[in-house]
Design goal:
60s Ribosomal Protein L30, Chain: A; two-stranded antiparallel ribbon
Length: about 150
């Protein structure tokens, strides 16, 4: 049976990729009670960054939003790997977006909207969440954004 989430993904032309494996001594997901914690996901497609550099210098706001969307898709890939099915997500509780930005770039929340908007597009009201968006100096692989999430699950 096709779920509403699968229908929305198909309508948006999104295929959930295989979940990335950890590159260090940590796990990508941790289930605690009915909460699924997902480690920070980078904006990778087929293992390659969708963009590199800092917002406000090498990366435009629109490129940053696209990178945030890629992070959100990778968060869902991790959730699907951990749960077996995205239909087990009751809601997105919180995301934290870390944005590599030039010190004069102030639109950090706008970059994070790329992920927030996509989660709502895919999950509907269950995708609405609390959020922190933080500007930082640098991220792994020189990517412009990394996002972690907490999901409430069935």
């Amino acid at each position: 049976m096709t779920t509403n989430i699968e229908n929305r993904l198909a309508e948006l032309g999104i295929k959930i990729p295989e979940a990335a494996t950890p590159v260090a001594n940590y796990v990508t997901t941790q289930l605690s009670g009915n909460m699924l914690f997902v480690s920070g996901q980078l904006p990778l497609i087929d293992g390659k960054p969708v963009s590199t550099g800092k917002l406000g210098t090498e990366v435009s706001l629109e490129e940053g939003k696209r990178a945030a969307r890629a992070c959100a898709i990778n968060l869902l890939a991790q959730a699907q790997h951990a749960l077996g099915n995205l239909a087990k997500i009751q809601k997105v509780v919180k995301i934290t977006a870390f944005v590599a930005a030039d010190p004069t770039f102030y639109d950090i929340p706008q970059v994070a909207n790329g992920a927030s908007d996509l989660l709502v597009e895919i999950l509907g009201d269950a995708g609405k969440h609390t959020r922190s968006a933080v500007g930082i100096a640098v991220l792994p692989m020189n990517v412009p954004i990394e996002i972690e999430a907490i999901f409430e699950v069935k």
